[in-house]
């Protein structure tokens, strides 16, 4: 199971997705840990069993056990944060923003990997989950850490491609039933 296997599963009408997988992942200049942590965390966030089954083994093969766990942890904590903070932000009653969250998020203090990698993964997962508040927070952290806009954009490019592949393959599976 691999990126190549995933590309071979895409239908002909989604040829652009194959090309985008090559560009965003296959030809990426990102460091391996940052790239494959982003791939794994966004594959989890996509909620597509097919995408996750194809990409997780390749991620596991190139990531350290700590980074593999941290990418999964990032997807998990951001699933919580993205729903909570997106909802808080979307509510007309802004008083919710002053209330204590009361949610456990200990991993934010020690994510188990370099802080920039964690922020990059959290930013990419927030793109999949559509939380503007979280996107702004993680983009700001990345920029404060000296990450250039072009590099930050790579995170949401990978997120967009993974999500589009997930949507396409899941639709094809549903239509085949």
Automatic annotation (TrEMBL):
<feature type="active site" description="Cysteine sulfenic acid (-SOH) intermediate">
    <location>
        <position position="134"/>
    </location>
</feature>
<protein>
    <recommendedName>
        <fullName>Alkyl hydroperoxide reductase AhpD</fullName>
        <ecNumber>1.11.1.28</ecNumber>
    </recommendedName>
</protein>
<keyword id="KW-1015">Disulfide bond</keyword>
<dbReference type="InterPro" id="IPR029032">
    <property type="entry name" value="AhpD-like"/>
</dbReference>
<comment type="function">
    <text>Antioxidant protein with alkyl hydroperoxidase activity. Required for the reduction of the AhpC active site cysteine residues and for the regeneration of the AhpC enzyme activity.</text>
</comment>
<keyword id="KW-0049">Antioxidant</keyword>
<feature type="disulfide bond">
    <location>
        <begin position="131"/>
        <end position="134"/>
    </location>
</feature>
<keyword id="KW-0575">Peroxidase</keyword>
<keyword id="KW-0676">Redox-active center</keyword>
<dbReference type="InterPro" id="IPR003779">
    <property type="entry name" value="CMD-like"/>
</dbReference>
<dbReference type="InterPro" id="IPR004674">
    <property type="entry name" value="AhpD"/>
</dbReference>
<dbReference type="InterPro" id="IPR004675">
    <property type="entry name" value="AhpD_core"/>
</dbReference>
<comment type="similarity">
    <text>Belongs to the AhpD family.</text>
</comment>
<feature type="domain" description="Carboxymuconolactone decarboxylase-like">
    <location>
        <begin position="96"/>
        <end position="177"/>
    </location>
</feature>
<feature type="active site" description="Proton donor">
    <location>
        <position position="131"/>
    </location>
</feature>
<keyword id="KW-0560">Oxidoreductase</keyword>
<comment type="subunit">
    <text>Homotrimer.</text>
</comment>
<dbReference type="Pfam" id="PF02627">
    <property type="entry name" value="CMD"/>
</dbReference>
């Amino acid at each position: 199971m691999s990126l190549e296997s995933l590309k071979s599963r895409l239908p002909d009408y989604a040829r652009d997705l194959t090309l985008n997988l090559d560009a965003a992942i296959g030809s990426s200049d990102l460091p391996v840990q940052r790239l494959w942590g982003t791939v794994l965390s966004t594959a989890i966030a996509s909620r597509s069993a097919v995408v996750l089954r194809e990409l997780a083994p390749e991620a596991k093969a190139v990531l350290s056990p700590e980074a593999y766990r941290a990418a999964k942890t990032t997807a998990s904590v951001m699933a919580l944060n993205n729903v909570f903070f997106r909802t808080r932000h979307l509510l007309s009653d802004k008083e919710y923003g002053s209330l204590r969250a009361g949610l456990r998020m200990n991993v934010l203090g020690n994510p188990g990997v370099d802080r920039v990698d964690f922020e990059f993964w959290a930013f990419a997962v927030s793109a999949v989950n559509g939380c503007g508040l979280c996107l702004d927070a993680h983009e700001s952290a990345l920029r404060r850490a000296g990450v250039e806009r072009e590099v930050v954009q790579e995170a949401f490019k990978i997120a967009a491609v993974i999500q589009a592949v997930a949507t396409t393959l899941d639709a094809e599976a549903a239509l085949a039933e």
